[in-house]
Amino acid sequence: MIRIIGFDADDTLWRNEELFELAHERFRALLARYHPPAEVDRVLYATEMRNLPLYGYGVKGFNLSCVEAAIALSEGRIAARELEEILATGREMLAHPVELLPGVASMVPALTRDYRLLLITKGDLHHQERKVAASGLAGHFQGIEILSEKDVPTYERVLRRHGVSLDEFVMVGNSLKSDILPVLALGGAGVHVPYHLTWQHEHVEEAPAPPARFRRIGSLAELPAVLPHL
Amino acid sequence: MIRIIGFDADDTLWRNEELFELAHERFRALLARYHPPAEVDRVLYATEMRNLPLYGYGVKGFNLSCVEAAIALSEGRIAARELEEILATGREMLAHPVELLPGVASMVPALTRDYRLLLITKGDLHHQERKVAASGLAGHFQGIEILSEKDVPTYERVLRRHGVSLDEFVMVGNSLKSDILPVLALGGAGVHVPYHLTWQHEHVEEAPAPPARFRRIGSLAELPAVLPHL
Fold first, then answer.
1. Contacts for A48 with CB less than 8 Å, ≥ 6 apart
2. CA-nearest residue of chain A to B146?
3. Residues A81-98: pLDDT tens digits?
């Protein structure tokens, strides 16, 4: 019986991927006179993946990779003022207000009547803390965990720290790779709420999930109804 | 009587500020044909401070501010290839091996015989985690806390989480502002180990510390001798 719900944050409780999508569009436009969009996307993604071990997740590393990829794609011909536009987009992403997804503002407080809630997110510590504070939801969570990675060892560590037993835990999120599969592997439950946009890096082949402790729902509004069946 | 020691990490257990110093030197050299060193430093620091609420602490934010300041200082005339040099310096800083300060490798394990140790550091989550792992010291700490800021509320939260009573706690670090003053304000003890380099932002006027629970030592080697007197 579920007693503790872990919530992912970006693209589960509030919008996030749209901002990256917008940054990609601007980036393609800026580099359009050098390369077609597909090549721009390919080089940017390769740059991001090469830098991921050094930069980790988050807007700042993405923004640095954009500047680097723009210089490479233009073979050094891009103007400094154009690179400044990339920096400005990064600052805009970081300053952007938090937009809760529909229903979140009422559902999260309502769930605290029957469940303990944890917020379990990955990314940049400073930015995630600012978003949690801006969301107005922080007070409803018994614990807020900002991780550099969401995998089996990090979930184990977090759940141990909070004294959470896996048979009473469900993780709710939009990423099969980061929110669902590691928790199922540990023996917990998972509710997948796909978002209409997914970062390429978070894509996984559809996993054969144990039928009993996994559900996919179309929107977070369906969550309360599935919780008793996990 | 002290039972728990909190250690700062950067410039307390391992070298850090030298890497920023080197990055500053390269930055001054790159901008030398536009402005004298003092003006270059002034604009870079102003850029860093303006961006701090968005970027937080750490190498990635610093690196982004360097690119922005270089474009501003050169009025957009700097070449993309020169900006790529700034990016390369940032990646070098992140990839740099962790160099423990003298005596740390033997002192930290030795202290665990009589004290519980906590590592309490601020900055970029991903980079700090990588440095903690690379230091080889992680196993000696009962808790590792990576914070976005080190002030009175964050120390209170961390010490509560670890069940630490302030009369048995001492914080050891190189920054009066981040390591010592907030802990003294809470009623804990502080041992200041100045480092030969201090980032401008960490400078504070010398504080009139309560005499009983504050010591300044010349090097970490003196720490075991002062602990019984705090």
1. A61, A62, A65, A201
2. A125
3. 999 999 999 999 999 999
Give the integer Cα–Cα distance in Å for B60 and B87: 9
User: Strands B116-122 and B143-147: what pairing?
Assistant: parallel
Cβ contact, residue pair B54, A124, below 8 Å: no
pLDDT at A140 over 60: yes
Best probe of the A interface among B78, B126, B128, by most A CBs < 10 A, is B126
ipTM: 0.90
Q: In this structure, what are the phi and psi dihedrals at residue A87, rounded to the nearest 5 degrees?
A: -60, -40
Rounded mean pLDDT of chain B? 94
Write out the residues of chain B at the interface with chain A, using a CB-CB cutoff of 8 A.
Answer: 51, 54-58, 60-61, 63-64, 67-68, 70-71, 74, 76-81, 83-84, 87, 90-91, 94-95, 124-127, 129, 146-148
Q: Residue B81: exposed, middle, or buried by beta-carbon count in 10 A (0-12, 13-18, 19+)?
A: exposed
What is the DSSP secondary structure assignment for residue B216, as one 8-state letter? E
Taking a C-beta distance cutoff of 8 angstroms, is the pair A191, A170 a contact?
yes
Mutation test of the interface with chain B: which of A47, A55, A161, choosing the one with the most B Cβ atoms within 10 A?
A: A55
Contact between B20 and B66 (Cβ < 8 Å): no
Strand B143-147 versus strand A189-192 pairing type: unpaired
B71: Cβ contacts below 8 Å, ≥ 6 apart:
A80, A81, A83, A84, A87, B78, B83
Give the residue, A126 or B210, on which the prediction is more confident: A126
Which among B54, B79, B81 has CB closest to A94?
A: B54
Determine the 3-state secondary structure of A82 from DSSP.
helix
Question: Residue A212: pLDDT above 70?
Answer: no
CA distance A147 to chain B (A): 8
**Residues A194, A4: Cα–Cα separation, whole Å:** 21
Separation in Å, CA A97 to CA A91, A135, A144, B31: 12, 9, 20, 35
Question: CB–CB of B68/A87 below 8 Å?
Answer: yes
